[in-house]
Amino acid sequence: xxxxxxxxxxxxxxxxxxxxxxxxxxxxxxxxxxxxxxxxxxxxxxxxxxxxxxxxxxxxxxxxxxxxxxxxxxxxxxxxxxxxxxxxxxxxxxxxxxxxxxxxxxxxxxxxxxxxxxxxxxxxxxxxxxxxxxxxxxxxxxxxxxxxxxxxxxxxxxxxxxxxxxxxxxxxxxxxxxxxxxxxxxxxxxxxxxxxxxxxxxxxxxxxxxxxxxxxxxxxxxxxxxxxxxxxxxxxxxxxxxxxxxxxxxxxxxxxxxxxxxxxxxxx
Length: 268
Known about the structure:
The protein has 268 residues and is of the alpha/beta class. It has two domains: 5-123 and 238-266, NAD(P)-binding Rossmann-like Domain (Rossmann fold); 129-235, Dihydrodipicolinate Reductase, domain 2 (2-Layer Sandwich). The chain has helices at 14-25, 47-50, 64-68, 80-93, 106-115, 129-144, 167-179, 184-187, 239-251, 262-266; strands at 5-9, 30-35, 60-61, 73-76, 96-99, 120-123, 150-157, 204-210, 216-224, 227-235, 258-260. Strands 3-2-1-4-5-6-11 form a seven-stranded parallel β-sheet, with helices on both faces. α6 (129-144) runs parallel beside α7 (167-179). The longest helix is centred in the middle third of the chain and has 16 residues, at 129-144. It starts with a strand and ends with a helix.
């Protein structure tokens, strides 16, 4: 069987470059396309040369239609608007679309769901094994503790991250809410500032820290009178997210249309 062809979007970014390196090093897949935004100075160049390495025989393009048409998988860590557009093209190509983008609106998610009726979409706020194990634990711990235990999600990321709370923080909050038989929209507390008054019983709060080159740190805090339970994940190398994305792209090759996440990929 021919190795699946992979298209990487946003190839000039840190995650894009890392994905390219891992695809090229893999004996289970091949790189068939490289997409960049219009206006990028990488456009029209051989991807390898643009990255400062030997030529790869793949030209960087902003023509997503042509790049995705021959692909079996698209790996996408870009922006919500771009990811929605790529989802439509991946659906037309019947290619697996692996999405690590965060910050989607409700309308964006509806468009992704429509695309998933034609091809697999694997979307996760975080693609690391550790975080997905943490998410599973969050659901179980929240189910075991009653509303006398306040829930707070505290996350830290590098100064360049543009959305807050992080997709991982929201994923953890959603898991905790599900453990309590509710949705995150029902329990989420807006960002606190000023005279906020006492917290609402059973609510889930969020705090976001931005600075330096922090890859990603997440604490899920369950706090009651006299004791606290803290679940923590610390990422020190963003390659864990790239490796998870490649694993998802391979896992999805024999799957039918639909929406999946890393819990499905990892069998959790």
